[in-house]
Protein: 9059_t:CDS:1
Organism: Scutellospora calospora
Amino acid sequence: MPSGIQQASQLYNTLKAEFTSASPDLNKCGSYLAKLKIALSEMQLLLPREELTNPEELLIARMENLSECFTAYWSVHVKDIPSFERYIAQLNTYYTDYSSLLKPSDQMYPLTGLNLLRLLSQNRIAEFHTALENIEPEQLLENPFIKHPVHLEQYLMEGSYNKVWNSREQVPAPEYRFFIDILMGTIRSEIASCSEKAYSSLPLVDAATLLFYNNLNDVLNFAMEREWKVNPTEKKIYFTTKDDNLVEIPHANITKQALNYAHTKNTI
């Protein structure tokens, strides 16, 4: 085996061992990924070419495919969304343009579903549906990694935020929780905006239930971010508007229904 390919293989094996360990060192993984890409670039194998026929070159191209998978997951673990988006775009080259050259990685659908979830968390619904058009119809119904974001989009369209929250405990891979948490942050902001306009105040316990928080400290931190007034004696949150007056709008009924539903759910 040529020294360049041997070096890349060693780097890949080192990366794989570290990333799949019980407690991976993400800084080390990032360093190994950078070195691997340099090695592949020097051999002009950073992307597969149609003229590749040498088994060793095909092997290294396949290795690059898998290293991109590790890089995409690494980006999620270090919470680098632009990096994740960039590596997903590179992986799509393998999954579409070179599908006849290389068999799809086992990580193709897990990463495709993770990318769909990213688009949902960024409210890029048109791109979400465009991405779905490139997925085989049977995968939309049967593949757990694809079904999860598809169902989430349906829950969002229905306004079933409790189902979105519950989906966090039903993820097909741990990395999915990262984008669900971002999505829940957006949902909480929408609920908070409605609550500010529909109520003058709410008990802390009710606010926690309404905002899908499991403890009061999270509610207090959220209240501080929103500049809400908290009365610790009464254990109530007082909402404020620019003119410090209550604004009556139809959101009240929606918020009351959500709160009543949350109470009912917790008593079942």
Summary: The mean pLDDT is 81.
